């Protein structure tokens, strides 16, 4: 299989170095850009499968660069941010980011996020109809039933929609807006955000824990994330 | 009423901090309906879903009141044996155990027969601090500060008093007000309220007059508290000015202004405008001014030709909101010439409230009429008679010489005219002029009119001539003396104005207290001829003007006297009521009641006018000194702010710069840790680097947030969040840094919403998790419990470490102050982290408390619960 190529846009040399090392170890090709202009040039010259974008760049604000990139490319973008620098992470999503990771990050976390985005973006055909398994759960998309430890879970329509939406995008943050769209469709109300929280809370109570861990993770102020990996099972 | 209760409820929710809210129903006598009203509002709260109970109620066997008690849960009191009878007292313990939202407790002034606390208000204090709100009732005569006053009115010594501070801290004060007549009727009509009646009788409250006075006092009390609340909220303050005259009626206006100023908690000033040159204050005026000073008002003496002009000028300089004028209701013939003062003032200063207090014109006695004339006569001096005699003699000599030349008498009349004019010019006042005019007519008649050497007149037309002569000389004399007086007056005024304006401009130019004081000392010595010293600071700094003629003999204990004057802001020494035996006169120079310097004068006693003048001279120095100290203070604050700003900016930029290299260190060690060929030692070292770096990151985040908060840059970005989401998110984040961390958390059955700033609140939880893990046992297990209450929720974080000692808990309670005094806990990070937590929780109107549970220490975050908008 052809190696996937990452474009890392980051002005700090030592972070560039460590990212390159990490991504090489995870079997990716790495291109390095130290500012916005270099990034634009590299994107025109080479085929890139994923962009890792730092928000603090010398020549252009990273958030601004993200908007520009989205005009010309659909390549997924993972944003690197400092925790206090960014107050409104939601705008990142509406500007087209696929996920974000806060500095300082753990190597394992970074690799997990990258893999999750790659899987979601390039293995789309893997999902669709059939059965999926995650932790103690088995979900049958065709029959629209969920089993936990082989016992059927009784979920409401919205809870089911939320579960399948999260489950099909494991380990990636799903922001509130996307989840609301997936569950309730276009007819969104101002209080929908609160309804989503209630639905999630109820779903969480029904799912329980797996090896002392919650299934659904919270990225506070941004959205929810399916914490475990998901496997397709043969029907 | 329901609305009242709702507002109350909202307020309880809004300030969901620990302390309960206090509402006092204030009445002016027993029987006005406080208990009834309190129960009525309690019912409204019950309907709104608030948990209201009765802690203690006194219904006085009134049917209406008793009916209202139904529907409330009554918390059982404790019984005490008191002599023969058993008395049921309020049980603080039972109420606190019961934990209602609001408890109704009647008779705030009650003294307990046998309880832990001697007074009921102490019980209530305890209940309030346990987070329960209290409704209570009080009669105004039980207020400590009014005790004496009410004793005076009713002759009854009220034993049960409540300190004023307890009343002022009330969140609401509602006045229960009915007409005293209605109250009396009520009592007469209903024979059932025997106990009440007996009470009233005992308190000598039968009388309508007493009730009316008590009612007025109660009204004032409420007004004062409202206005104090308002002025605390930065509302514009009032300043009352009362214009007074020599009239004894002025005292009414003074009292009126005083009461108004009291009611509004405003300063007040009495002003007298002096329109005469040689003004001797009457005893009435002195008495009036004394009353003003006794009532705590300022006195201002103005000089000017017109009362209204002087007032307008004064009011334009000093911001006056209300003017009080005393006025005679009856107008006499003089009224035709009197200007309408209030009209003029209203035209000039449209935004001033003018109140006119009618006075009663007293019948004028002959003594009263004679008094001014006697005063005038007193002013005549011997020199005036010498001058008058000389001129009249000269005129007679000239006329005798003329008589031999011309027989025409009209010329002689002109000579006497001239003499009278000259006399008027060179004597004080017009009395000498009038007497001279009469004497000159007599002389003329005696010497030159047929029959000569007799006062008889042969031709009748001379009678007319004499009358004309008297009238004309009088008019001329009057005009001349007035003109002279005005000239002298304006010369002196001009001189004083020149000195004053020079003084003011010079003082502004000098920006140093010593030079300022020296300038004033020079001016005063020159103007009054006294020797003066000015102490411009408490530490004996002194400037003085040494004149050659007088020796300045310092009093023994000079320093102590100055300290006394400074401390009491009161004059002392020669001519005063304090230490009047001293040679020196000590006068504080103060501005807005704050002493800024002390003037010491060696010389003869000042007369009344000179004292007033002295005040005028001292004012520019007071102003200049006040201004100087104010500037100094501003400068100091500005410097402090600049320093703080610099510190914060430095911290911020350092923190930002540190973040990137630390990120790279963490990522590098992470990567190295994935290698297989590491020795155990390598692994340990790398893990330590990694751990310490993560700790640094946490520290930097804390510092950044603190600098932001201390610069006031933090606006909470509140969003509604579900409590469990918040806790899970923090747990996950914390686990990335500390993989060994184990959180025991049971999702609560109830879905709890908070209105919080996510970023800041995550920081709180992470800091608390970090502390709990660091100081826990090896299992690294941390319990998180959620305890919802009606309007608040407790988030309890427990670990299995050593219990907090008493001392530690005290220390933790003091973190805020310790941080300010830079006595940070030596255990790194603990101080700043907890300080940050406390600050953030307070911003969210919550509380952070430290205590112990069975197996270890615990931290409790208490936060207000948010109602979701679609609920």
Automatic annotation (TrEMBL), chain A:
Tagged with keyword Glycoprotein: no
Residues found modified as 4-aspartylphosphate: 54
Domain OmpR/PhoB-type: 129-228
Response regulatory domain sequence ranges: 5-118
SMART domains (UniProt xref): REC, Trans_reg_C
Record's keyword annotation contains DNA-binding: yes
Keywords: DNA-binding, Phosphoprotein, Transcription, Transcription regulation, Two-component regulatory system
Organism domain of life: Bacteria
Gene3D superfamilies per UniProt: 3.40.50.2300, 6.10.250.690, Winged helix-like DNA-binding domain superfamily/Winged helix DNA-binding domain
DNA-binding region: 129-228
Name of the protein: KDP operon transcriptional regulatory protein KdpE
Species assigned in the record: Periweissella fabaria
TrEMBL record, chain B:
Membrane topology reported for the UniProt record: Multi-pass membrane protein
Pfam families associated with the record: DUF4118, HATPase_c, HisKA, KdpD, Usp
CDD domains found in the cross-reference section: HisKA
MF annotations from Gene Ontology: protein histidine kinase activity
Superkingdom assignment: Bacteria
Substrates-to-products reaction catalysed: ATP + protein L-histidine = ADP + protein N-phospho-L-histidine
Matching InterPro entries: GAF-like_dom_sf (IPR029016), HATPase_C_sf (IPR036890), HATPase_dom (IPR003594), His_kinase_dom (IPR005467), HisK_dim/P_dom (IPR003661), HisK_dim/P_sf (IPR036097), Histidine_kinase_KdpD (IPR052023), KdpD_sf (IPR038318)
Entry's EC annotation: 2.7.13.3
Protein name stated in the entry: histidine kinase
